[in-house]
Design goal:
The protein has helices spanning 8-40, 43-58, 61-110, 120-136, 138-144, 147-157, 159-206, 208-213, 217-269, 275-297, 299-318, 375-383, 405-411, 426-430, 438-447, 451-455, 474-486, 504-519, 531-536, and strands spanning 335-342, 352-359, 364-369, 390-395, 398-399, 412-415, 424-425, 464-465, 492-496, 523-527, 539-543, 564-565, 572-573. By secondary structure, it is an alpha/beta fold.
Length: 580
C-alpha cells in the first residue's frame, strides 16, 4: 500500500510557493537594478546644472572634462544595467513557462480531476499571456514606483514646477482609465467575432467532405465574411479610440514641456531659478511623466496577466497529481457504481439518479438504450473523464477519478464513440503515443483484427498516420482505436459503440476478443445494440423509461431489469441482475 498522499490543493500551492521562493532572489536583483537605473537618470539633469550654471563662471576645463567623463560612465552603466535587466525578465518569463507548461498541458488533456476550470488550450494561452507580460511589460511596473521620486525632486527645485508635473501625471492616469473604459466593449466584440470566424474555419476543415458533397462552401464563406467584417469593424473602432487617446497623451507631454519651460523662464526672470535648474527640472519632469505614461500603456497587459494568473492558480489548485493509496488487490476488484447521480452543467434534469451497478472481474456488462439516454455519459463516468454529482464510481475501494495517469494507463482501456487518431505511427497510436512494447502492440492489433492490414502497409507498424489520413478506411481506423483500448490487457475495458463501421467478420472477431479479455480477468463495459454482444454479456443494463419488467434478447428468457424513472426527475435509476 502506498503512503497516504497530500491533497491536490496543497500540492499545487506548493508548486506556486516553490516558484515564488526560487524567484525571490531574482526579483530582489531586478528591484535593485530598477532603483539604480532610475537613480542614474538624474545624471543628465545634474550634468546640465553643472555645465550651464557653474562651469561658465569657473571656466575650469579640468572640471568640465571630469564631470563629462563621470556623466558618460553613469549613462553607460545605466544602459548596461537596462540590457541585463531586460535579459533577466525574458529569462524569468521563459522559466515560468518551462516550469508550469508541462503540468498544465498534462492535466489539461488527461481528463483527470474534479471540475476542471479550463482546457489545455486555455491554460497554455493563459501561461503564454503571463510569460509575455513578464518578458516585455513587467519592467514598466518596476519603474513606475519611482515616478513619485521624480515629482518630489522637481518640487524641491520649485513647488510650482512640481505642481505642473503632478497635474500632468494625474491627467495621463485619467486618460488611461478613460481609454480602458471606452475600448473595453469594442475589444470584447472583436474578440468574439474573431473566435466565431476561427471556429468556423476549424469546423469547415474538419467536415470538408460534407462541405464539398453538400455544396456548403458558399454559405460558409458568407458566414466567415460576416464574422471577419464584424471583427474588423470593432477592431477599427477600438484602434481609433486608442489612437485618439495616444494622441492626447502625446499632446499632453508636449504641453508639459512648454508649460515647464515657460514657467521656468518666468522664474529665471524673477531671479528665483537659474537656466540650468530650469532645464534640469524639465528633464526630471519628463522622466517621471514617461514612467507613468509607459505604465498606463501597459495597463491592459497587466490586467490580462493578472486574470491569466488567477485562472492558472485555480487550475493548479484543482488538478490532482497526488497519488492516492491503492491496495494491490485493486487489479482484481469489481467495478462498482454506488448511488451515482449525474446531470450536465446548466441542466436541471439528471441523466442518472442513484444508479447502482456492480461488475465483477471477468464479467461483461452490456449497456443498451435509445439515443440520448446517457450511454456515452455513463462510459465517461466509468473511465473517470466525468465525475458524478453524487455517489461514487470505484474500482474496488478506489474512485476511478482519483487514479493517477500512470495507474489509469495500466488499468483502463477506452474506445470513445467518436474515434480520433493522433499524428504519429500506427505503433505509437496503439501504444497510446508512447514507444510501447512491440509484442504488446502486435498482440492488441491481433485481438482487434487489424494486424494483417497493418503488415500490408508500406512501412507496417511504422506507417505514419493522422486522424484524417486517407491511407486508412473508417473501419481500419476504428480497429486501430480498438487495439489502443486493448493495449496492455487492461483491467477495465470500456467500449462505446465498438461495432459501428465494422463489417460482419470484424464484429465476430471483436466478440471473440471480448471473450478472451474476460477469460484473462478483465471487466468489460460495452454500450451496444448488438444482439451478439447482448447474448454474450453477463449483465445487461437498459437505459430509458418505463416500468420495471423482465425482457429478453433474441427471444431468450434472460432475467434482466429495465431501468425505471425517478418519479421526481424523470431520470433513470436501477439495480441490475445478472443474465442467466
Amino acid at each position: 500500500m502506498r503512503k497516504p498522499a497530500k491533497s491536490k490543493g496543497t500540492a499545487d500551492s506548493q508548486i506556486l510557493r516553490r516558484m515564488w521562493g526560487e524567484s525571490r532572489a531574482g526579483v530582489g536583483v531586478l528591484t535593485l537594478f530598477s532603483a539604480v537605473i532610475n537613480i542614474l537618470k538624474f545624471t543628465t539633469p545634474l550634468y546640465m546644472v553643472q555645465i550651464l550654471d557653474r562651469i561658465p563662471s569657473s571656466r575650469s576645463v579640468e572640471t568640465l572634462v571630469m564631470i563629462t567623463i563621470i556623466a558618460l560612465l553613469a549613462v553607460v552603466a545605466g544602459v548596461a544595467l537596462e540590457a541585463v535587466r531586460r535579459r533577466m525578465f525574458a529569462r524569468w518569463g521563459a522559466w515560468i513557462e518551462r516550469e508550469l507548461g508541462p503540468n498544465l498541458f498534462h492535466t489539461g488533456i488527461s481528463g483527470q480531476g474534479k471540475e476542471r476550470s479550463a482546457t489545455a488550450t486555455r491554460s497554455l494561452n493563459d501561461l503564454s499571456t503571463l510569460r509575455t507580460f513578464v518578458s516585455s511589460s513587467a519592467a514598466a511596473w518596476f519603474d513606475v514606483v519611482w515616478a513619485p521620486l521624480f515629482v518630489v525632486m522637481v518640487y524641491l527645485i520649485h513647488p510650482v514646477l512640481g505642481t505642473i508635473g503632478l497635474a500632468a501625471i494625474a491627467v495621463v492616469i485619467l486618460l488611461g482609465v478613460l481609454q480602458e473604459v471606452m475600448t473595453r466593449e469594442p475589444r470584447r466584440a472583436s474578440h468574439d467575432a474573431s473566435s466565431d470566424a476561427r471556429n468556423l474555419v476549424v469546423s469547415a476543415e474538419r467536415n470538408s467532405e460534407t462541405v464539398g458533397a453538400l455544396g456548403m462552401a458558399t454559405n460558409l464563406t458568407e458566414r466567415w465574411r460576416r464574422s471577419t467584417t464584424a471583427r474588423h469593424d470593432e477592431a477599427e473602432r477600438s484602434q481609433a479610440r486608442i489612437a485618439y487617446f495616444a494622441a492626447m497623451m502625446q499632446g499632453l507631454g508636449r504641453c508639459l514641456r512648454i508649460a515647464g519651460l515657460g514657467v521656468g523662464i518666468w522664474l529665471v526672470i524673477q531671479d528665483i531659478l537659474t537656466i540650468g535648474a530650469v532645464i534640469a527640472a524639465g528633464i526630471i519632469m519628463r522622466f517621471g511623466f514617461r514612467l507613468v505614461q509607459n505604465a498606463v500603456r501597459k495597463w491592459r497587459a497587466l490586467m490580462n496577466a493578472r486574470h491569466a494568473y488567477q485562472r492558472l492558480k485555480v487550475q493548479l489548485s484543482l488538478n490532482d497529481t497526488a497519488s492516492p493509496s491503492i491496495a494491490a488487490a485493486t487489479s482484481d476488484a469489481p467495478l462498482i457504481l454506488e448511488r451515482v447521480s449525474y446531470r450536465h452543467h446548466g441542466q436541471s434534469k439528471y441523466v442518472f439518479r442513484r444508479l447502482e451497478v456492480t461488475v465483477e472481474a471477468g464479467e461483461l456488462l452490456c449497456i443498451i438504450g435509445a439515443s440520448a439516454t446517457g450511454k456515452s455519459t455513463l462510459s465517461n463516468l466509468v473511465t473517470g473523464v466525468l465525475t458524478p454529482r453524487s455517489g461514487q464510481v470505484r474500482l474496488g475501494d478506489i474512485e476511478i477519478s482519483r487514479l493517477p495517469p500512470e495507474e489509469l494507463a495500466q488499468l483502463v482501456g477506452y474506445l470513445p464513440q467518436e474515434v480520433r487518431l493522433f499524428d504519429g505511427s500506427i505503433r505509437e497510436n496503439i501504444a497510446r503515443m508512447g514507444e510501447g512494447d512491440f509484442e504488446a502492440v502486435v498482440s492488441a492489433a491481433r485481438l482487434a483484427n487489424i494486424h494483417e492490414a497493418i503488415v500490408r502497409l508500406p512501412q507496417g507498424y511504422d506507417t505514419y498516420i493522422s486522424d484524417d489520413a486517407p491511407i486508412l478506411s473508417g473501419g481500419e481506423r476504428k480497429r486501430i482505436a480498438i487495439a489502443r483500448a486493448f493495449y496492455g490487457q487492461p483491467r477495465l475495458v470500456v467500449l462505446d459503440e465498438p461495432e459501428a463501421n465494422l463489417d460482419r467478420r470484424s464484429r465476430r472477431v471483436l466478440n471473440q476478443a471480448l471473450q478472451t479479455l474476460k477469460a484473462q480477468g478483465s471487466t468489460i463495459v460495452v454500450t451496444s445494440q448488438s444482439k451478439r454482444v447482448g447474448e454474450s454479456a453477463d449483465k445487461v443494463l437498459i437505459l430509458g423509461g418505463g416500468d420495471e419488467k423482465r425482457g429478453s434478447l433474441d427471444g431468450k428468457s434472460n432475467p434482466q431489469e429495465k431501468v425505471g424513472k425517478d418519479q421526481d426527475t424523470g431520470s433513470p435509476r436501477s439495480r441490475i441482475r445478472p443474465v442467466e
